[in-house]
Every structure is written in C-alpha cells, then in structure tokens.
Specification:
Structural class: alpha+beta
CATH class of the domain at 70-148: Alpha Beta
Distance between the termini: 171 Å
Strand order of the largest sheet: 1-5-2
CATH superfamily of the domain at 70-148: GrpE nucleotide exchange factor, coiled-coil domain
Number of helices: 3
Order of helices and strands: HHHEEEEE
Shape: elongated
Largest sheet: 3 strands, mixed
CATH topology of the domain at 70-148: Hemagglutinin Ectodomain, Chain B
Strand content: 5-15%
Number of strands: 5
Radius of gyration: 58 Å
CATH architecture of the domain at 70-148: Alpha-Beta Complex
C-alpha cells in the first residue's frame, strides 16, 4: 500500500499539529511585542506616606536661626539699664526744675519784704504812715500773687459754691437768698484750673427749721 509523504499517519503527521498548536499557544500568551498600556489616573503611584503629604525623602528646609536665649537676656538687661538711667535723669531734671521754680517765686516776693522793712523803719518817726505803708505792701503782694496765676477773688454777694468756699457760719433772716455769701473772712486765691486756697465765708441760711 502506498503511503503519502505528508499523510496523516506516522510520527511526522502526529508532531506537526502539536508544533502548530504550540506556536498558537505562544502567540496567545503575549510573546508578541506589547502595545501601549492605558493608565488609570486614580492608580498613579504615590510616594510612601499619606496622600497629599510631602514625601519623607524630600529635603528639609531649615528655618533661619533666631537669637539665642543668652542674646535675648542680654538685650533685656541692656533695655532695663537704659530705662533705669532715663528714670534717674528725669528725676534729677525734675528736682532741678522744682528748685529753680521755688527760687523764682521767692525772688518775686523780695520787693514785698523790702517794702515791709521800709514801713517798719519809718514807724517811729510817723506812726500814721505805717498804716498806709502796710496797705501799699498788701496791694503789692496781691498783685504778685495774681502775676503768679493766683488772683484774689471777691466773693461777697456770690452764691455759695463748695468748690470755692468754706462756710464757717450761717446767718438766718438776712433777707438774702439762701446760700448767698454775706462776708468773706479769709479771701480765696486762684482760678478755675488751679486754686491756691478756697475762701472762708459767712453765708445766709434758711429761716425754716
């Protein structure tokens, strides 16, 4: 019986289909050149750590170094020393100004004392002139106080005001409105913003008990 060289029987016939099947199997399992692969944006690899946090491998950026505790303490000590020196300097200046003001005030009253000395020196020769001399010296002293900013107030007939007056007596049945200043026992000196002393006065009182 004649056999076909490529017949379906025999060892060769049995191996060819298997080799073809092997080639098909290799092709099906991706040995062909791979094509482009689609990447899901949600599956992009994130460096170690939580999402949104900088990677632990990122280089550290050091903040500029601030002054040390010793330097801050030195600054504080210098500031306190400067403040203490300034306070002492102001205290010396204030004391100096106070002494200078006292000297100026005393110098203003020297002419008043001089005139009193002159009045007393002529008291033996003309006793009547002493009264006129004392009155003149009093007027001079009042003018001096006014120059210093403390004018003499004439409060007779004015309504009583506890800011300006100190009542030492109340007189009923005077016919004057209650609280009217009837008499000034000791005059007051000063103005609204500065008062040397209040006036001591006698006032009209309410006749009703």
């Amino acid at each position: 019986m004649a056999h076909h060289p490529h017949g379906g029987s025999g060892p060769q016939a049995d191996t060819e289909p298997e080799e073809q099947a092997g080639h098909d199997h290799v092709a099906r399992h991706g040995l062909d050149p791979p094509g482009p692969v689609a990447v899901d944006p949600d599956e992009v690899a994130v460096p170690a750590g939580h999402a949104g946090e900088p990677s632990a491998e990122a280089p550290d950026i050091e903040a500029p170094a601030g002054p040390s505790a010793a330097e801050l303490e030195g600054r504080l000590r210098r500031a306190l020393a400067d403040l203490d020196n300034m306070r002492k300097r102001y205290e010396r200046q204030l004391a100096s100004e106070r002494e200078a003001e006292r000297a100026r005030t005393a110098a203003v009253f020297l002419p008043v004392v001089d005139n009193l000395d002159l009045a007393l020196a002529h008291a033996d020769s003309d006793p009547a002139a002493v009264v006129d001399g004392v009155r003149a010296v009093r007027d001079q002293a009042v003018n001096t106080l006014s120059t210093l900013g403390f004018p003499r107030r004439e409060d007779t007939g004015m309504p009583f005001d506890p800011v300006w007056h100190e009542a030492v007596s109340v007189v009923p049945n005077t016919g004057e409105p209650d609280g009217t200043v009837l008499q000034v026992i000791r005059p007051g000196y000063g103005e609204v913003d500065r008062q040397l002393r209040p006036a001591t006065v006698v006032v009209a009182g309410n006749t009703q008990g």
